[in-house]
Amino acid sequence: MDITRLRFRNYHNKTKVAVCEVVFDESFIIKDIAIRRGKGGLYVTYPIRQYARDRSRDVAHPVTKEFSEEISNTILSKYGVYKETGIDEFFVEDLVG
Prior knowledge:
alpha+beta, 1 helix, 7 strands, 19% helix
């Protein structure tokens, strides 16, 4: 599966810096992937759903470490290119081809 489109929305928060939508093969989308700032720099977290006061469950996430790294590296590299624009919402399209 290839990432074919990304959509970013900047956040003005201490730890969450942006939220991303990822489209795979123009056929499948995952929304609410967060880009967060930690002690080691930026990292990606996947969407969760709160189902009880103190419990949550992953909505979607990569199964393998390799696929997780591929997605994270693509998201963070494309975010890095556009974060300096100062635009609150931006799109990255045609990543394949």
